[in-house]
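pasting for ref
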Amino acid sequence: MPGAEGLDFRDVEAFSADEAYLLAAGPGEQSRIYKTTNGGKNWDLQFTNHEPKGFFDCMAFWDRTHGIAVGDPVEDKFELIQTNDGKTWQPLASTSLPPAVDGEGAFAASGTCISVRGESTVWFATGGKVARVFRSSDRGKTWSIAETPMVQGSESSGIFSIAFADVRHGVIAGGDYKHPEKEGANLAYTEDGGATWRLSPVPHPPFLSAIGYLEPSHTRELLAAGSTCLLWAASATEDKSLTFHDLSLNALSFSGRSAWAVGGNGKIVRWVDGLTGAGTN
């Protein structure tokens, strides 16, 4: 993209071969949202963050014209913006912004710290001093907050990714990115829409920066990527049917029974029902 040499792109949401949104994460005006309608030949700048203390992390869409993005706290409240026409982005009313604990924030990492389902439900996950999940059933007008058993307490630890199979069943993944090999409370699940969270019995997962469900989502098969592995699990609620691949990866994208994962140094991995093919570009 012309003029984007200094930007750090962390999230892309595509609706066709021609239409996609792209989020750049960073402090102040480095946080931006672009959109293309011609397969990336041209990109229109839709949003620039003008708050110097702001830092946007992730975005998600209910459909091609209705989306929401979350940013780190400014004056102790998380920043959230939304689009209702696929063209313009507006901040949520200040009275709707959920409060943050000092030292709490979201991780841009893989662009998956926020998730949506249905027509109006949205969740986003945090880390740092605390690791919590925020939930809204009315597109951000009101919020509830759930504590989680995930690793937390340092600026490099917490929840890095959140995904839902439906409005009740979801997973969160994370850890401490400064200690990616450290196993522990890095994977948890909910069966009540995010009101409560339990640690997964999946044994000793290391740091995970991205997680999601393979289709069909009702099977609740998981694929997760981290700095030291690619992990497949039959379910977050069981400790069987696991496959580990010794790969260093950062982000995931799903298409039916297939997935693509990317990592440093141009690494691209394709996953299809347990088979991986890796290459560099």
